[in-house]
Input
Amino acid sequence: MVRVQLLHIEDCPTWQVADDHLRQALRAVEATVDVEHVLVEAPEQAAAWGFHGSPSILIDGVDPFAHADAPVGLSCRLYRTPGGTAGSPTVEQLVEVLSGR
Output
């Protein structure tokens, strides 16, 4: 069973969009998974999680969208999507990651 965590900061305007996209993607791949929500509140937490900004999605402890040079810290995060820059990966991008492609 896959472990899925959604990490976010309190004032993130897009973490709920990411949560919705993630749930749609999980339904699409027919995965019955409880998404664990993690509120990251301190720089020490960000460092411990390897948090690259809010929202971040971990699949089995790995952030599949993180770039090697991405900074760790309490900030908002942007994603590259086929439609341009967005505050969340698309449902299709999440399906691809969850499908292991």
User: Anything to note?
Assistant: The mean pLDDT is 94. The longest strand covers residues 4-8. Residues 65 and 79 are 8 Å apart (CA to CA). The helical segments are 15-28, 43-49, 91-98.
